[in-house]
Amino acid sequence: MNAPTVYDVAGQAGVSIATVSRVYRAPDSVRAGTREKVLEAARELGYVPSGNARGLASRNTRVLGLCFPDYADPDAEDPDSDYGDDAELMLYSDEIIRGMERAARRHGYALLIAASLAEGPRNLVADVAGRVDGFAVLARTVPTEELEVISRRLPVVMLAGPREDAALDHLDHVEVANFDGELALTRHLIADHGHTRLAFAGSAEDSPDGEARFRGFQAAHLEAGLPVPERPDVRTGLTQAEGERAVAELLDREGETPHAVAFANDQMAVGALSELRRRGVRVPEDLAVVGFDGIPLGRLVTPALTTVRQPMRRLGEEAVELLVARLGDRGREPASKVLPVSVVRRSSCGCPARDDSVDGSGPLGDGPVDGEASVTQS
Amino acid sequence: MNAPTVYDVAGQAGVSIATVSRVYRAPDSVRAGTREKVLEAARELGYVPSGNARGLASRNTRVLGLCFPDYADPDAEDPDSDYGDDAELMLYSDEIIRGMERAARRHGYALLIAASLAEGPRNLVADVAGRVDGFAVLARTVPTEELEVISRRLPVVMLAGPREDAALDHLDHVEVANFDGELALTRHLIADHGHTRLAFAGSAEDSPDGEARFRGFQAAHLEAGLPVPERPDVRTGLTQAEGERAVAELLDREGETPHAVAFANDQMAVGALSELRRRGVRVPEDLAVVGFDGIPLGRLVTPALTTVRQPMRRLGEEAVELLVARLGDRGREPASKVLPVSVVRRSSCGCPARDDSVDGSGPLGDGPVDGEASVTQS
DNA sequence: CGCTGGGTTGAAAGCGCATTCATCGTACGC
DNA sequence: GCGTACGATGAATGCGCTTTCAACCCAGCG
After folding, report:
1. Domain of life, per the record (chains A, B) (predicted)?
2. 3-state SS of chain A?
3. Nearest CA in chain A to B275
4. Does any strand D atom come closer than 7 Å to the Cβ of A50?
5. Phi, psi (rounded to 5 degrees) for B127
6. What local confidence, expressed as pLDDT, does residue A346 receive?
7. Does strand D come within 7 Å of the CB of A54?
8. Over 90: is that where the pLDDT of A373 sits?
9. Tens-place pLDDT, residues A345-368
10. Is the pLDDT confidence value at A90 over 70?
11. What is the pLDDT averaged over residues A133-146?
């Protein structure tokens, strides 16, 4: 009653288990007649090769992994929430998953995914690590120390995190041009809209992405001859709720209020939009708002959010390429890819609103071309 | 230079491999002092337990799988396409993946995903099947015959496909209330908007979902005392491009043109919207259009698409529950869950347009509550 | 007609871990 | 103080498959 094994098939077909194995691993090395006998027996018995056994014997799994934090906004989990529908909008990690799955499949690998809650990642990662030939990790999903140990044994590529940690600089990295993207975005705010009093709503200091974006923000000031801010004007979490909080704090603060706010990501910016609306602050007239990420939700809100679009799917694809390359040559130099981003000008920064409706060419007026400027890391 | 194994750790810690194993599988059965020694050695060596070996020895993988077709609209793959951005919108399978991942994690499983192209699914499924303890399959992703063989050896749940195939009726199923959803939707068209000349744009006959929806369409006619259509007025593929084709065929056909068209899914309906716009046909004045699925894109188009929303994430969650349940009791009766759907009234059917902009409560006016009616399979 | 070599197939040795079963102490009970 | 039972640990076996290495078969050649 147990699942049939090579032995069963071999017995049934009147051959040795080696031959059964060959039928699956190297069909051409088995005579056609024999092969048919084996295949027939396998079909009859309902034989499915054990991935575990195969993996054990051949010392590889043909599976790639992805560990990502469970980013879901808790709000979005609540079906009664106003944000209910946002959950349907594709988030960061979904895109990466898609990209990795495609690329992995192309290379003959399957994809194992595991989101990690704040709680017990220790177990999670080791678990994943033990099952795959290599895997990608979204930055800060896994404690450095643990990654260090694991990466000694199998290829790991870090996603969306700069090579900051010395202990991890032997890892391959894929990231987007955070610095240049925010630089271009801020430059747009300054040069095209004439803003001089800008604020930056950042995330925790240990968010490499956020920090890089802030540096781009600084650089734009430097470039324009404006006083360079030393640090983000406010720091909060990366959710919509936190974005509301951030903008509230900014506005309630005494002193001059800014004329434009750059948020560390789109979710925060979207949250801020709600809060601003609630307060009667007009966007972009009273305050310009920009985000970063290019989540679909950004186009649905009013005003539509100006942002920087990241090629998230490509992030996943590149991760797989790096993994495969390293699997092929363990000794190669650590690689680091920086993917180009593009500024998406919509109305929240003061750019003219564009028609988001059906037109002659497609259902969406917001084509990928106009209003964008591609930017590559220098 | 090979990855360290239990033997290495055991040697380093001065214990037997059995003890090392116990430290990981049943920590409490090892004295605290010993445990620490082992853990220390493991850390030092960079030991990561081999999932393959563990799986082989314990006869289970703690991994659940998901096989789905690669639904992506080929158009969406073309970065120059007008649909470029649609790719960012969450598609059917992404939601299922999310749902399954969550539920699987809750039960201590990882998730292995594999999309299958039209080409070599044979290999794919066997590959997945050999690596997991059980898996879910989107209907029609895998040939019946193959599924039949595999499902004899491990739990398989069929997603979004009715239990039509006798060879597969021992499988657990999860589906949505296609019939009742389309019934409610069509009823809305007839009763609330007074339509009497409706058309149905269906998909291939072997699409169980599409057929069930059509039967709901028929039922609404029957209920209203209208002549019951024998078959869909047109059948095409499920993509946007095919939707354009379908509506074109419908309009070019001689005889009376319908006043409302129900499409088998949202993607087709969205495509139709483009074609109608191109032809100068006003929606909903000249022709009402409704879809099915509730994809986010449906809300972005103009006019916003009236549709039936499926709880796709729950589909994934329920699949895992069923899998886990069967893993716990192989002998249980085949279960079949039907998830409720809800009609989402937007403007493409003639319902008043609703404000999709920021309001006091959230960035989206299209809350999950108003304009919907929940429907459960009878 | 014996020999050689290529093409097939079989025997056997692991792969790294879980899991009995046996062993060894040792705390306890009488 | 001795037997007992229980807790902790080790030895050994096997999970199902891949992979040499060797054996074998037969065609072709000298």
Report:
1. Bacteria
2. CCCCCHHHHHHHHCCCHHHHHHHHHCHHHCCHHHHHHHHHHHHHHCCCCCHHHHHHHHCCCCEEEEEEECCCCHHHHCCCCCCHHHHHCCCHHHHHHHHHHHHHHHCCCEEEEEEECCCCHHHHHHHHHCCCCEEEEECCCCCHHHHHHHHCCCCEEEECCCCCCHHHCCCEEEEECHHHHHHHHHHHHHHHCCCCCEEEEECCCCCHHHHHHHHHHHHHHHHHCCCCCCCCCEECCCCHHHHHHHHHHHHHCCCCCCCEEEECCHHHHHHHHHHHHHHCCCCCCCCEEECCECCCHHHHCCCCCEEEECCHHHHHHHHHHHHHHHHHCCCCCCCEEEECEEEECCHHHCCCCCCCCCCCCCCCCCCCCCCEEEECCC
3. A360
4. yes
5. -60, -50
6. 93
7. yes
8. no
9. 999 999 987 544 333 333 333 333
10. no
11. 86
Label residue B1 by pLDDT band (50, 70, 90). low
For each of the domains in chain B, give its residue range(s) and CATH number, in order of start: 6-58 (1.10.260.40), 63-176+312-339 (3.40.50.2300), 178-311+343-375 (3.40.50.2300)
**Token reading at B315:** 């589909």
A278 touching chain B per CB within 8 A: yes
Mean pLDDT, chain A, rounded, equals 84
Assigned token pair, A235: 């720091």
Q: Is the CB of A2 under 7 A from strand D?
A: yes
- The Cα–Cα gap between A254 and A26 comes to 74
Point out the residue among B114, B273, B368 whose CB comes nearest to the CB of A358. B273
Task: Flag whether pLDDT at A80 surpasses 60.
Answer: no
Integer distance in angstroms from the first to the last C-alpha of chain B? 63
CB of A50 less than 8 A from some CB of B? yes
Q: State the pLDDT at residue A357.
A: 36
A90 vs B48, B89, B111: nearest CB: B89
